[in-house]
Amino acid sequence: MKRLSRRTWMTLALALLLLAGLVLYLVRFALYSERWVVFPGNPHAYSGTHLLAGEVTDRDGEKLLDFSDGKSYSADSAIRKATLHLLGDRTGNVPSPVLDRYAARLLGYDVVSGLYGAQSRRGALKLTISARVQTEALNALAGRSGTVLVYNYQTGEILCAASSPTFDPDGSAPAESDGVYLNRAFGAVYTPGSIFKLVTAAAAIETLPDAQTATYRCEGTYAIGEQSVTCTAAHGDLTLEQALAKSCNCAFAQIAEQLGKKTMLDSVKRWGVAEPCRFDGVITPSGRFDPQDADQIDFAWACIGQYTDLVNPCSYLRFVGMIAGEGKAAQPYLTAQAGGYTAHTKNAPYRMETETARILADYMAYAAETVYGNIADLPVCAKSGTAEVGEGQPTNANFVGFVRSEACPLAFYITVEGGGSGSKTCAPIADRVLRACKQAIES
Ligand SMILES: [Zn+2]
Questions:
Q1: What are the structural domain ranges in the chain?
Q2: If we measure between CA atoms, which residue out of 140, 21, 14 comes closest to residue 82?
Q3: Alpha carbon 89 to chain centroid, angstroms
Q4: Which runs of consecutive H residues, i.e. helices, occur in 37-151?
Q5: Per-residue pLDDT tens over the stretch 2-39
Q6: Which residues surround ligand 1, an ion (CB under 5 A)?
Q7: For 52-66, 183-197, 202-216, which range has the lowest pLDDT when averaged over its residues?
Q8: Which CATH architecture has domain 187-334+344-442?
Q9: Separation of 363 CA from ligand 1 center, angstroms?
Q10: Separation of 291 CA from ligand 1 center, angstroms?
Q11: What is the pLDDT of residue 339?
Protein backbone atom coordinates (compact mmCIF):
# COMPACT_ATOMS: atom_id res chain seq x y z
CA MET A 1 0.00 0.00 0.00
CA LYS A 2 2.82 2.32 1.02
CA ARG A 3 4.70 1.43 -2.16
CA LEU A 4 1.71 2.18 -4.34
CA SER A 5 1.24 5.60 -2.84
CA ARG A 6 4.89 6.45 -3.52
CA ARG A 7 4.38 5.47 -7.16
CA THR A 8 1.28 7.64 -7.34
CA TRP A 9 3.22 10.61 -6.07
CA MET A 10 5.98 10.00 -8.54
CA THR A 11 3.52 9.80 -11.43
CA LEU A 12 1.84 12.96 -10.28
CA ALA A 13 5.20 14.72 -10.04
CA LEU A 14 6.08 13.59 -13.58
CA ALA A 15 2.71 14.75 -14.88
CA LEU A 16 3.22 18.15 -13.24
CA LEU A 17 6.69 18.40 -14.72
CA LEU A 18 5.27 17.64 -18.17
CA LEU A 19 2.57 20.26 -17.71
CA ALA A 20 5.10 22.84 -16.55
CA GLY A 21 7.23 22.06 -19.62
CA LEU A 22 4.22 22.47 -21.88
CA VAL A 23 3.30 25.81 -20.33
CA LEU A 24 6.89 26.99 -20.66
CA TYR A 25 6.92 25.93 -24.30
CA LEU A 26 3.64 27.73 -25.06
CA VAL A 27 4.83 30.91 -23.38
CA ARG A 28 8.10 30.80 -25.28
CA PHE A 29 6.22 30.02 -28.49
CA ALA A 30 3.99 33.06 -28.05
CA LEU A 31 6.97 35.27 -27.25
CA TYR A 32 9.59 33.99 -29.66
CA SER A 33 7.99 32.05 -32.53
CA GLU A 34 8.25 35.16 -34.72
CA ARG A 35 12.00 34.98 -34.26
CA TRP A 36 12.24 31.19 -34.65
CA VAL A 37 10.59 31.29 -38.08
CA VAL A 38 13.17 33.69 -39.47
CA PHE A 39 16.22 31.72 -38.38
CA PRO A 40 19.01 32.24 -40.92
CA GLY A 41 18.88 29.64 -43.67
CA ASN A 42 15.12 28.97 -43.52
CA PRO A 43 14.32 28.55 -47.25
CA HIS A 44 10.70 29.57 -46.61
CA ALA A 45 11.87 32.94 -45.26
CA TYR A 46 14.93 33.84 -47.30
CA SER A 47 16.27 33.72 -50.79
CA GLY A 48 20.01 33.97 -50.23
CA THR A 49 20.32 36.73 -47.62
CA HIS A 50 17.17 38.73 -48.31
CA LEU A 51 13.59 38.10 -47.26
CA LEU A 52 11.14 36.54 -49.69
CA ALA A 53 8.33 39.05 -49.22
CA GLY A 54 7.19 42.30 -47.65
CA GLU A 55 7.58 46.01 -48.20
CA VAL A 56 8.71 48.97 -46.13
CA THR A 57 7.24 52.45 -46.45
CA ASP A 58 7.74 55.77 -44.70
CA ARG A 59 5.01 57.65 -42.76
CA ASP A 60 3.48 58.97 -45.99
CA GLY A 61 3.39 55.59 -47.75
CA GLU A 62 6.50 56.35 -49.84
CA LYS A 63 7.97 52.94 -50.74
CA LEU A 64 11.48 52.52 -49.32
CA LEU A 65 12.11 48.81 -49.82
CA ASP A 66 10.31 45.95 -51.57
CA PHE A 67 11.18 42.26 -51.14
CA SER A 68 8.61 40.85 -53.58
CA ASP A 69 11.08 40.61 -56.43
CA GLY A 70 14.51 40.38 -54.87
CA LYS A 71 15.43 43.39 -52.77
CA SER A 72 14.50 46.70 -54.40
CA TYR A 73 15.26 49.98 -52.68
CA SER A 74 13.58 53.31 -53.54
CA ALA A 75 13.95 54.45 -57.16
CA ASP A 76 15.29 57.77 -55.85
CA SER A 77 19.01 57.63 -55.03
CA ALA A 78 18.73 60.54 -52.54
CA ILE A 79 16.14 58.55 -50.55
CA ARG A 80 18.27 55.38 -50.78
CA LYS A 81 21.23 57.24 -49.27
CA ALA A 82 19.13 58.99 -46.62
CA THR A 83 17.51 55.78 -45.36
CA LEU A 84 20.47 53.39 -45.72
CA HIS A 85 21.25 53.27 -41.99
CA LEU A 86 17.67 52.28 -41.16
CA LEU A 87 17.20 49.67 -43.91
CA GLY A 88 20.71 48.23 -44.19
CA ASP A 89 22.75 47.63 -47.34
CA ARG A 90 22.99 44.59 -49.62
CA THR A 91 26.17 43.16 -48.12
CA GLY A 92 25.20 43.20 -44.45
CA ASN A 93 27.88 45.72 -43.49
CA VAL A 94 25.11 48.09 -42.42
CA PRO A 95 22.70 46.12 -40.22
CA SER A 96 18.98 46.87 -39.95
CA PRO A 97 17.69 46.03 -36.45
CA VAL A 98 14.16 47.09 -37.39
CA LEU A 99 13.98 44.75 -40.41
CA ASP A 100 15.40 41.90 -38.31
CA ARG A 101 12.86 42.57 -35.59
CA TYR A 102 9.87 42.51 -37.93
CA ALA A 103 11.10 40.01 -40.53
CA ALA A 104 8.33 37.52 -39.66
CA ARG A 105 5.64 40.20 -39.99
CA LEU A 106 7.05 41.20 -43.38
CA LEU A 107 6.75 37.59 -44.51
CA GLY A 108 3.13 37.43 -43.39
CA TYR A 109 3.75 34.93 -40.57
CA ASP A 110 1.05 34.50 -37.97
CA VAL A 111 1.11 32.47 -34.78
CA VAL A 112 -1.83 30.18 -35.72
CA SER A 113 -1.14 29.23 -39.33
CA GLY A 114 2.60 29.92 -39.40
CA LEU A 115 3.89 30.65 -42.88
CA TYR A 116 1.06 28.66 -44.50
CA GLY A 117 -0.81 31.10 -46.76
CA ALA A 118 1.68 33.81 -45.86
CA GLN A 119 1.79 35.04 -49.48
CA SER A 120 -1.75 36.41 -49.17
CA ARG A 121 -0.96 38.11 -45.86
CA ARG A 122 2.32 39.64 -46.99
CA GLY A 123 3.12 42.21 -44.42
CA ALA A 124 3.90 45.86 -44.76
CA LEU A 125 6.15 47.71 -42.39
CA LYS A 126 5.32 51.39 -42.05
CA LEU A 127 8.03 53.47 -40.44
CA THR A 128 7.42 56.71 -38.53
CA ILE A 129 10.16 58.53 -40.43
CA SER A 130 9.61 60.82 -43.39
CA ALA A 131 11.89 60.09 -46.36
CA ARG A 132 11.60 63.74 -47.39
CA VAL A 133 12.78 64.98 -44.00
CA GLN A 134 15.61 62.41 -43.95
CA THR A 135 16.78 63.67 -47.35
CA GLU A 136 16.55 67.31 -46.24
CA ALA A 137 18.60 66.50 -43.10
CA LEU A 138 21.27 64.77 -45.15
CA ASN A 139 21.44 67.74 -47.54
CA ALA A 140 21.72 70.11 -44.57
CA LEU A 141 24.64 68.07 -43.19
CA ALA A 142 26.24 68.63 -46.61
CA GLY A 143 28.74 65.79 -46.51
CA ARG A 144 29.93 66.46 -42.96
CA SER A 145 29.86 63.54 -40.51
CA GLY A 146 27.13 63.69 -37.93
CA THR A 147 23.50 63.04 -37.18
CA VAL A 148 20.11 64.74 -37.11
CA LEU A 149 17.34 63.24 -34.97
CA VAL A 150 13.81 64.59 -34.61
CA TYR A 151 10.94 63.01 -32.69
CA ASN A 152 7.46 63.84 -31.49
CA TYR A 153 7.89 64.28 -27.75
CA GLN A 154 4.22 63.55 -27.07
CA THR A 155 3.95 60.27 -28.99
CA GLY A 156 7.56 59.13 -29.36
CA GLU A 157 7.43 58.81 -33.19
CA ILE A 158 10.84 59.41 -34.79
CA LEU A 159 10.41 61.60 -37.87
CA CYS A 160 14.08 61.84 -38.74
CA ALA A 161 17.14 59.74 -37.90
CA ALA A 162 19.71 60.79 -40.48
CA SER A 163 23.32 59.63 -40.30
CA SER A 164 26.24 60.94 -42.34
CA PRO A 165 28.46 59.84 -44.10
CA THR A 166 26.32 57.41 -46.07
CA PHE A 167 26.32 55.73 -49.49
CA ASP A 168 23.93 54.47 -52.13
CA PRO A 169 23.20 50.75 -51.58
CA ASP A 170 22.65 50.46 -55.34
CA GLY A 171 25.84 52.36 -56.15
CA SER A 172 29.47 51.37 -55.81
CA ALA A 173 30.66 50.31 -52.37
CA PRO A 174 32.38 53.03 -50.33
CA ALA A 175 36.17 53.14 -50.76
CA GLU A 176 37.00 53.23 -47.09
CA SER A 177 34.76 52.70 -44.13
CA ASP A 178 35.39 56.06 -42.33
CA GLY A 179 32.56 55.08 -40.01
CA VAL A 180 30.24 55.02 -43.02
CA TYR A 181 28.56 51.81 -41.83
CA LEU A 182 27.70 53.27 -38.41
CA ASN A 183 24.22 54.61 -37.73
CA ARG A 184 25.29 57.65 -35.72
CA ALA A 185 21.76 58.39 -34.48
CA PHE A 186 21.34 55.02 -32.78
CA GLY A 187 24.86 53.59 -32.55
CA ALA A 188 27.23 56.44 -31.66
CA VAL A 189 28.14 58.22 -28.44
CA TYR A 190 29.40 61.80 -28.39
CA THR A 191 30.97 64.18 -25.90
CA PRO A 192 28.01 66.44 -25.13
CA GLY A 193 29.84 69.67 -24.26
CA SER A 194 27.55 72.47 -23.14
CA ILE A 195 24.27 70.77 -24.09
CA PHE A 196 24.92 68.80 -20.88
CA LYS A 197 24.45 72.05 -18.91
CA LEU A 198 20.72 71.32 -19.23
CA VAL A 199 21.19 68.37 -16.87
CA THR A 200 23.19 70.45 -14.39
CA ALA A 201 20.70 73.33 -14.61
CA ALA A 202 17.76 70.96 -14.02
CA ALA A 203 19.53 69.48 -10.98
CA ALA A 204 20.12 73.03 -9.67
CA ILE A 205 16.47 74.04 -10.15
CA GLU A 206 15.34 70.90 -8.39
CA THR A 207 17.71 70.96 -5.41
CA LEU A 208 19.06 74.47 -4.75
CA PRO A 209 16.41 76.55 -2.96
CA ASP A 210 17.56 79.88 -4.47
CA ALA A 211 18.45 78.53 -7.92
CA GLN A 212 16.23 80.97 -9.79
CA THR A 213 17.37 84.11 -7.96
CA ALA A 214 21.04 83.50 -7.07
CA THR A 215 23.73 85.19 -9.14
CA TYR A 216 27.12 83.82 -10.13
CA ARG A 217 30.16 85.96 -10.87
CA CYS A 218 32.25 85.25 -13.97
CA GLU A 219 35.58 86.98 -14.41
CA GLY A 220 36.61 84.80 -17.33
CA THR A 221 38.28 82.22 -15.11
CA TYR A 222 37.23 80.44 -11.94
CA ALA A 223 39.90 78.85 -9.78
CA ILE A 224 39.42 75.41 -8.25
CA GLY A 225 42.50 74.45 -6.25
CA GLU A 226 45.58 74.97 -8.41
CA GLN A 227 43.65 74.88 -11.67
CA SER A 228 40.82 76.87 -13.16
CA VAL A 229 37.77 76.65 -15.38
CA THR A 230 37.72 79.22 -18.16
CA CYS A 231 35.21 81.10 -20.29
CA THR A 232 35.76 82.77 -23.68
CA ALA A 233 35.01 86.14 -22.03
CA ALA A 234 34.25 87.64 -18.60
CA HIS A 235 30.48 87.36 -18.37
CA GLY A 236 30.00 89.42 -15.16
CA ASP A 237 27.14 88.66 -12.76
CA LEU A 238 24.69 86.10 -14.10
CA THR A 239 21.52 84.38 -12.97
CA LEU A 240 21.12 80.69 -13.82
CA GLU A 241 18.93 81.65 -16.80
CA GLN A 242 21.61 84.01 -18.15
CA ALA A 243 24.41 81.54 -17.37
CA LEU A 244 22.62 78.93 -19.49
CA ALA A 245 22.00 81.32 -22.40
CA LYS A 246 25.62 82.56 -22.37
CA SER A 247 26.84 79.03 -21.62
CA CYS A 248 29.09 80.37 -18.85
CA ASN A 249 31.54 77.70 -17.67
CA CYS A 250 32.55 79.67 -14.55
CA ALA A 251 28.94 79.89 -13.34
CA PHE A 252 28.38 76.20 -13.97
CA ALA A 253 31.59 75.29 -12.12
CA GLN A 254 30.18 77.13 -9.08
CA ILE A 255 26.82 75.39 -9.48
CA ALA A 256 28.62 72.03 -9.69
CA GLU A 257 30.37 72.78 -6.36
CA GLN A 258 27.02 73.54 -4.73
CA LEU A 259 25.36 70.41 -6.12
CA GLY A 260 28.06 67.87 -5.34
CA LYS A 261 28.65 64.47 -6.94
CA LYS A 262 25.82 62.56 -5.31
CA THR A 263 23.08 64.94 -6.48
CA MET A 264 24.47 64.97 -10.00
CA LEU A 265 24.83 61.18 -10.16
CA ASP A 266 21.28 60.70 -8.81
CA SER A 267 19.86 63.19 -11.32
CA VAL A 268 21.61 61.64 -14.33
CA LYS A 269 20.30 58.24 -13.27
CA ARG A 270 16.74 59.38 -12.50
CA TRP A 271 16.41 61.12 -15.87
CA GLY A 272 17.94 58.25 -17.85
CA VAL A 273 20.50 60.56 -19.48
CA ALA A 274 23.04 57.75 -19.90
CA GLU A 275 20.54 54.87 -20.17
CA PRO A 276 20.09 53.11 -23.53
CA CYS A 277 16.94 53.43 -25.62
CA ARG A 278 15.27 50.15 -26.57
CA PHE A 279 12.67 50.04 -29.36
CA ASP A 280 11.88 48.09 -32.53
CA GLY A 281 14.97 45.89 -32.28
CA VAL A 282 17.26 48.88 -31.68
CA ILE A 283 19.34 49.04 -28.51
CA THR A 284 21.44 52.19 -28.27
CA PRO A 285 24.78 52.20 -26.41
CA SER A 286 24.93 53.54 -22.85
CA GLY A 287 26.20 57.03 -22.26
CA ARG A 288 28.68 57.93 -19.56
CA PHE A 289 28.72 60.26 -16.56
CA ASP A 290 31.41 58.97 -14.33
CA PRO A 291 32.83 61.55 -11.89
CA GLN A 292 33.14 59.25 -8.82
CA ASP A 293 36.92 59.31 -8.83
CA ALA A 294 37.29 62.75 -10.40
CA ASP A 295 38.98 65.57 -8.48
CA GLN A 296 37.10 68.85 -8.02
CA ILE A 297 38.16 70.45 -11.27
CA ASP A 298 37.32 67.35 -13.30
CA PHE A 299 33.94 67.11 -11.59
CA ALA A 300 33.27 70.74 -12.60
CA TRP A 301 34.15 69.87 -16.21
CA ALA A 302 31.92 66.79 -16.02
CA CYS A 303 28.99 69.08 -15.10
CA ILE A 304 29.89 71.23 -18.13
CA GLY A 305 29.68 68.20 -20.44
CA GLN A 306 33.41 67.50 -20.83
CA TYR A 307 35.70 65.21 -18.76
CA THR A 308 34.68 61.62 -19.69
CA ASP A 309 31.00 62.46 -20.42
CA LEU A 310 29.37 60.69 -23.36
CA VAL A 311 25.79 60.69 -24.62
CA ASN A 312 23.97 58.68 -27.25
CA PRO A 313 21.96 61.04 -29.50
CA CYS A 314 18.74 59.05 -29.10
CA SER A 315 18.95 58.83 -25.30
CA TYR A 316 19.77 62.52 -25.04
CA LEU A 317 16.85 63.33 -27.32
CA ARG A 318 14.61 61.47 -24.89
CA PHE A 319 15.98 63.64 -22.05
CA VAL A 320 15.25 66.81 -24.08
CA GLY A 321 11.80 65.34 -24.81
CA MET A 322 11.25 65.04 -21.05
CA ILE A 323 11.85 68.78 -20.61
CA ALA A 324 9.51 69.45 -23.54
CA GLY A 325 6.89 67.04 -22.19
CA GLU A 326 6.73 68.85 -18.82
CA GLY A 327 8.53 66.03 -17.06
CA LYS A 328 7.22 62.99 -18.96
CA ALA A 329 9.60 61.33 -21.41
CA ALA A 330 8.08 59.62 -24.44
CA GLN A 331 10.07 56.57 -25.51
CA PRO A 332 11.28 57.04 -29.12
CA TYR A 333 10.11 54.48 -31.68
CA LEU A 334 10.43 53.83 -35.37
CA THR A 335 7.59 51.57 -36.46
CA ALA A 336 4.12 52.99 -37.07
CA GLN A 337 2.69 49.65 -38.25
CA ALA A 338 4.08 46.16 -38.70
CA GLY A 339 1.80 43.69 -40.47
CA GLY A 340 -1.39 45.28 -39.15
CA TYR A 341 -0.02 45.77 -35.66
CA THR A 342 0.09 49.40 -34.51
CA ALA A 343 2.86 50.58 -32.29
CA HIS A 344 1.68 52.18 -29.07
CA THR A 345 2.86 55.27 -27.33
CA LYS A 346 4.88 54.36 -24.33
CA ASN A 347 6.37 56.59 -21.70
CA ALA A 348 9.93 55.89 -20.67
CA PRO A 349 10.32 55.14 -16.95
CA TYR A 350 12.01 58.49 -16.27
CA ARG A 351 10.40 61.52 -14.68
CA MET A 352 11.37 65.09 -13.98
CA GLU A 353 9.34 67.37 -11.70
CA THR A 354 6.83 69.25 -13.87
CA GLU A 355 7.85 72.58 -12.36
CA THR A 356 11.56 71.93 -13.07
CA ALA A 357 10.77 71.08 -16.70
CA ARG A 358 8.69 74.24 -17.13
CA ILE A 359 11.34 76.54 -15.67
CA LEU A 360 14.07 74.92 -17.78
CA ALA A 361 11.90 75.25 -20.90
CA ASP A 362 11.53 78.98 -20.16
CA TYR A 363 15.31 79.27 -19.84
CA MET A 364 15.80 77.46 -23.16
CA ALA A 365 13.24 79.73 -24.83
CA TYR A 366 15.18 82.75 -23.51
CA ALA A 367 18.44 81.28 -24.86
CA ALA A 368 16.91 80.68 -28.29
CA GLU A 369 15.44 84.17 -28.38
CA THR A 370 18.59 86.02 -27.31
CA VAL A 371 21.30 83.87 -28.88
CA TYR A 372 20.10 81.56 -31.67
CA GLY A 373 17.61 83.77 -33.53
CA ASN A 374 14.60 82.69 -35.54
CA ILE A 375 14.43 78.95 -36.24
CA ALA A 376 11.83 77.83 -38.80
CA ASP A 377 9.39 80.55 -37.58
CA LEU A 378 8.59 78.26 -34.64
CA PRO A 379 8.65 78.84 -30.86
CA VAL A 380 11.92 76.97 -30.36
CA CYS A 381 13.60 76.31 -26.99
CA ALA A 382 17.25 75.29 -27.43
CA LYS A 383 20.77 74.79 -26.11
CA SER A 384 23.95 74.58 -28.12
CA GLY A 385 27.23 72.91 -27.25
CA THR A 386 30.72 73.09 -28.67
CA ALA A 387 32.42 69.92 -27.50
CA GLU A 388 36.18 69.50 -27.12
CA VAL A 389 37.00 66.01 -28.36
CA GLY A 390 40.78 65.91 -28.02
CA GLU A 391 43.81 68.13 -28.25
CA GLY A 392 44.40 69.55 -31.72
CA GLN A 393 41.08 68.22 -33.02
CA PRO A 394 38.32 70.50 -34.23
CA THR A 395 35.36 70.77 -31.85
CA ASN A 396 32.07 68.97 -32.44
CA ALA A 397 29.03 71.19 -32.92
CA ASN A 398 26.00 70.04 -30.91
CA PHE A 399 22.50 71.51 -30.75
CA VAL A 400 19.38 70.27 -28.95
CA GLY A 401 15.94 71.69 -28.37
CA PHE A 402 12.24 71.48 -29.02
CA VAL A 403 9.26 73.36 -30.37
CA ARG A 404 6.97 74.51 -27.59
CA SER A 405 3.72 74.03 -29.45
CA GLU A 406 0.80 71.61 -29.26
CA ALA A 407 0.50 71.66 -33.05
CA CYS A 408 4.16 70.85 -33.68
CA PRO A 409 5.50 68.92 -30.65
CA LEU A 410 8.98 68.13 -31.96
CA ALA A 411 12.30 67.72 -30.16
CA PHE A 412 15.63 67.53 -31.97
CA TYR A 413 19.27 66.49 -31.49
CA ILE A 414 22.01 67.53 -33.93
CA THR A 415 25.76 66.77 -33.96
CA VAL A 416 28.17 67.85 -36.68
CA GLU A 417 31.58 66.23 -36.08
CA GLY A 418 34.38 68.78 -36.35
CA GLY A 419 31.66 71.35 -37.02
CA GLY A 420 33.11 74.09 -34.82
CA SER A 421 30.57 76.27 -32.99
CA GLY A 422 27.39 74.49 -31.91
CA SER A 423 24.93 77.28 -32.59
CA LYS A 424 26.52 78.74 -35.75
CA THR A 425 26.80 75.38 -37.48
CA CYS A 426 23.66 73.65 -36.24
CA ALA A 427 21.01 76.38 -35.99
CA PRO A 428 20.72 76.60 -39.81
CA ILE A 429 20.42 72.79 -39.97
CA ALA A 430 17.67 72.87 -37.32
CA ASP A 431 15.93 75.59 -39.32
CA ARG A 432 15.88 73.53 -42.54
CA VAL A 433 14.94 70.24 -40.93
CA LEU A 434 12.19 71.67 -38.71
CA ARG A 435 10.63 73.41 -41.74
CA ALA A 436 10.56 70.04 -43.52
CA CYS A 437 9.11 68.36 -40.40
CA LYS A 438 6.40 71.01 -40.13
CA GLN A 439 5.35 70.19 -43.69
CA ALA A 440 5.46 66.45 -43.01
CA ILE A 441 3.19 66.83 -39.97
CA GLU A 442 0.75 69.13 -41.71
CA SER A 443 0.47 67.06 -44.90
ZN1 LIG B 1 31.56 82.95 -18.00
A1: 187-334+344-442
A2: 140
A3: 21
A4: 77-87, 97-101, 103-107, 118-121, 131-141
A5: 667 888 999 999 999 999 999 999 988 887 877 777 77
A6: 218, 231, 235, 248, 250
A7: 52-66
A8: 3-Layer(aba) Sandwich (3.40)
A9: 17
A10: 22
A11: 72
